């Protein structure tokens, strides 16, 4: 007898009670497709080996596949990398106020471009422009998809076929895809590099000016530091030189926090207000770096320049949606009360979390981890660590932190990679980092409120 004839038919499987339940959960189309695929696979395996799976095994496989397909691809993870604003893990987690605003905007029609007072068409930028002006000292502001888009739009509007003068020390690359020279070229502007890698003087800028010059530009060297024998021209001097020649001076701040981080013992990061006070005509910055909001790019500065930027047809292509604006508005509102910002703005509360607090978490989680790793040839201990801010912000500064370190017993380093993979394989993946022969879990970004769920999640660990 042909063993293939022992395989159930598609119709028989679809009529099975367990499969009916799957259909209720996932829909007939998806389950039918999985049933066909499972039978095809069983037939191929039977031809190769002669053995065929029984019906319960087939059904279990189909259930697993249905579950795997239904799981969202954009899954929450635990960020225990020690990098707080991790670009690959979505940068700033949003504060509850922003999450609530975003959900309301998602669920309902809302006055995105509608002037409720006058009953007519409005401008989506009006939702946040007032707050942005208040918080930066700018006359006007507009919002686009991210800071890369903000820089692109600025150059494309104010400098097409014209020259933009930038210091050689500031031609940054951010995460591979954003490079100042490339974005210039794509925006249609001509880059004029002045000075040297480590030192640029005002006279370098003035010597580079020509009738073709559109603007002077400063790019914040957010993700690297040049140390030693260096010189950069202060913003106020660049602004004065630009204005003498009737040119705008623009600053790409990168991160652009809206408050002085030194207030919380963090290193100082330049703010839009400082640049604008120093004479910058336009600044650009990210929404989801130190600002702690959703992915967005802000352009703030002179009213006439913002008006020109908003008239560029590419503004329409780079605009943000209602979800971004809802979250951004809520985050900006938190900045109006700086006294409580560190408690309410998630990114800032993570960045300012005291080491002692993180160490206490490590002591609570040590036995939990010990249980999860029982029997594996590793040692486990609490260690002091250094977190990074991330997203290219303040690259050389470190935040004193703490966490758990796993080291292989003996020479078998492979066990760390097995544990690392098992942690990634958890229902909510745990992402740590391997450094100097140790697997490190920096607990800065695991809040006390999340520890219960974290522990339950860890109970599923299997390092086979
Ligand atoms: C991060 C950064 C950018 C890009 O900002 P995104 O919001 O990631 O697009 C541009 N310029 C500087 C200086 C940056 O630090």
What labels would you give this structure?
single chain; alpha/beta; 4-stranded antiparallel beta sheet; 17 strands; binds pyridoxal-5'-phosphate
Mean pLDDT: 94
Strands of the biggest beta sheet: in what spatial order? 4-12-11-10-9-5-8
Query: Helical content, roughly?
Result: 40-55%
Strand residue content: 15-25%
What's the helix count? Answer: 19
Could you tell me which ligands this complex binds, including any ions or cofactors?
pyridoxal-5'-phosphate
What does the overall shape look like?
globular
Extract low-pLDDT stretches: none
Biggest sheet layout: 7 strands, mixed
Radius of gyration in whole Å, from Cα?
28 Å
Structural class: alpha/beta
Count of beta strands: 17
Measure the end-to-end span: 39 Å
Q: TL;DR?
A:
The protein is of the alpha/beta class and 464 residues long. It has helices spanning 10-15, 17-26, 28-49, 55-70, 96-107, 126-136, 147-158, 180-187, 202-208, 235-244, 272-277, 303-311, 313-318, 322-334, 341-344, 346-351, 355-372, 414-424, 451-458; strands at 78-79, 114-115, 120-121, 140-144, 163-167, 173-174, 178-179, 190-194, 213-219, 249-254, 282-286, 297-301, 378-387, 399-408, 430-431, 433-435, 438-442. Pyridoxal-5'-phosphate is lined by residues 146-148, 151, 172, 174, 178, 219-220, 222, 252, 254-255, 286, 297, 392.
What does this structure look like?
By secondary structure, the chain is an alpha/beta fold. The chain is built from 19 helices and 17 strands. The protein has helices spanning 10-15, 17-26, 28-49, 55-70, 96-107, 126-136, 147-158, 180-187, 202-208, 235-244, 272-277, 303-311, 313-318, 322-334, 341-344, 346-351, 355-372, 414-424, 451-458, and strands at residues 78-79, 114-115, 120-121, 140-144, 163-167, 173-174, 178-179, 190-194, 213-219, 249-254, 282-286, 297-301, 378-387, 399-408, 430-431, 433-435, 438-442. A 7-stranded mixed sheet has the order 4-12-11-10-9-5-8, sandwiched between helices. A 4-stranded antiparallel sheet has the order 13-14-17-16. The chain has a two-stranded parallel sheet with strand order 1-15. A hairpin with a 4-residue loop joins strand 2 (114-115) and strand 3 (120-121). Helix 2 (17-26) packs parallel to helix 4 (55-70), helix 3 crosses helix 4 and helix 7 packs across helix 8. The longest helix has 22 residues, at 28-49. It is globular. The chain starts with 9 loop residues before the first helix and ends in a 6-residue tail after the last helix. The model has no long low-confidence stretch (mean pLDDT 94). Pyridoxal-5'-phosphate (PLP) is lined by residues 146-148, 151, 172, 174, 178, 219-220, 222, 252, 254-255, 286, 297, 392.
């Amino acid at each position: 007898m042909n063993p293939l004839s022992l395989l159930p038919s598609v119709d028989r499987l679809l009529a099975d009670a367990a499969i009916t339940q799957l259909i209720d959960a996932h829909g007939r189309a998806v389950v039918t497709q999985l049933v066909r695929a499972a039978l095809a696979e069983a037939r191929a395996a039977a031809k190769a080996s002669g053995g065929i799976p029984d019906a319960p095994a087939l059904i279990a496989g189909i259930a697993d596949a249905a579950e795997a397909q239904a799981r969202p691809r954009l899954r929450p993870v635990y960020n225990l990398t020690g990098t707080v604003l991790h670009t690959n893990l979505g940068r700033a987690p949003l504060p509850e106020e922003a999450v609530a605003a975003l959900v309301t905007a998602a669920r309902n029609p809302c006055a995105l471009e509608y002037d409720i007072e006058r009953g007519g068409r409005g401008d989506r930028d009006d939702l946040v422009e007032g707050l942005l002006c208040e918080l930066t000292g700018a006359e006007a502001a507009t919002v686009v998809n991210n800071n890369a888009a903000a820089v692109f739009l600025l150059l494309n509007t104010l400098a097409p076929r014209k020259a933009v003068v930038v210091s050689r020390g500031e031609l940054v690359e951010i995460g591979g895809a954003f490079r100042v020279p490339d974005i210039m070229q794509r925006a249609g502007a001509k880059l004029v590099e002045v000075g040297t890698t480590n030192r640029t003087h005002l006279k370098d800028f003035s010597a580079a000016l020509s009738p073709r010059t559109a603007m002077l530009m400063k790019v914040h060297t957010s993700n690297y530091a040049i140390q030693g024998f260096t010189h950069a021209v202060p913003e106020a001097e660049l602004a004065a030189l630009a204005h003498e020649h009737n040119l705008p001076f623009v600053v790409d701040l990168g991160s652009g926090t809206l408050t002085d981080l030194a207030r919380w013992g963090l290193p100082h990061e330049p703010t839009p207000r400082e640049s604008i006070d120093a004479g910058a005509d336009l600044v650009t910055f990210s929404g989801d770096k130190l600002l702690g909001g959703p992915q967005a790019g802000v352009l703030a500065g002179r009213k006439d320049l913002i008006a020109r930027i908003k008239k560029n047809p590419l503004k329409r292509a780079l605009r943000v949606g209602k979800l971004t604006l809802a979250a951004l508005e809520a985050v900006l509102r938190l900045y109006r009360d700086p006294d409580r910002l560190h408690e309410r703005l998630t990114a800032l509360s993570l960045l300012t979390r005291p080491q002692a607090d993180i160490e206490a978490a490590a002591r609570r989680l040590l036995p939990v981890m010990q249980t999860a790793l029982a029997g594996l040839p590793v040692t486990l201990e609490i260690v002091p660590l250094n977190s990074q801010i991330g997203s290219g912000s303040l690259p050389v500064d470190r935040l004193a932190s703490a966490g758990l370190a796993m080291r292989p017993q003996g020479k078998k380093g492979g066990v760390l990679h097995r544990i690392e993979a098992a942690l990634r394989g958890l229902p909510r993946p745990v992402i740590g980092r391997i450094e100097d022969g140790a697997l490190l879990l920096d607990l800065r970004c695991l809040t006390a409120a999340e520890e219960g769920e974290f522990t339950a999640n860890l109970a599923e660990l299997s390092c086979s």
